[in-house]
Amino acid sequence: QVQLQESGGGSVQSGGSLRLSCAASGYIFDRNCLGWFRETPGREREGVAIIGTSRTTSYADSVLGRFTISQDNANNTLYLQMNDLRPEDTAIYYCAATTVQYAASWYCFARGPGEFIHWGQGTQVTVSS
User: Fold this and answer.
1) Alpha-carbon gap, residue 128 to 63, rounded angstroms
2) Could you say which DSSP state residue 4 is in?
C-alpha cells in the first residue's frame, strides 16, 4: 500500500529548528518526485522543497538556505531539516509524491501541487516570536 505519514512537527521559538520526517511506504525515491508543501489560512499553498531524480533538489525562495530536503532510501523516509525558523514558517506541512517518473526536481516544483497525487495528513509547525 502506498502511503505517506508526516511526523516531527511542533512548536518552537523563532530561530529554532525542527526536523520533519515522512514515512513514504511504497515509493522508490530515485524514480518519483517527493516533496514538502505547506498551507496556512493566510497564504496560498506552496511548495517548500522537492527532491527528484538523481537527487536533484529545488526550494522555495523563502526557505532557501534554511531548509534542507533529504531522503533515506534504506528506511523509506523523507526528511525536511528546518533551521532558523521564523513566524512566517508557521503552517501545516505535508509530504507528497508524484506519479511522474524520472523527473528532475525543477520539473516537479514548477508543476506545483497538482503534480503531486499522494499526500500525507500533515504535521503542524508553529513558530512563535
Assistant:
1) 17
2) E
For residue 9, give the amino acid letter. G
**Residue located via cell numbers 523523507:** 78
Along the 129 residues of the chain, how does pLDDT read in single tens digits? 678 999 999 999 999 999 999 998 876 666 889 999 999 988 888 999 999 999 899 999 999 999 999 999 888 899 999 999 999 999 999 999 998 889 999 999 999 999 999 999 999 999 999
77-82 and 67-72 beta bridge pairing: antiparallel
109, 6, 98, 52 alpha-carbon torsion, rounded to 10°:
50
What's phi and psi for 112, nearest 5 deg?
Answer: 85, -170
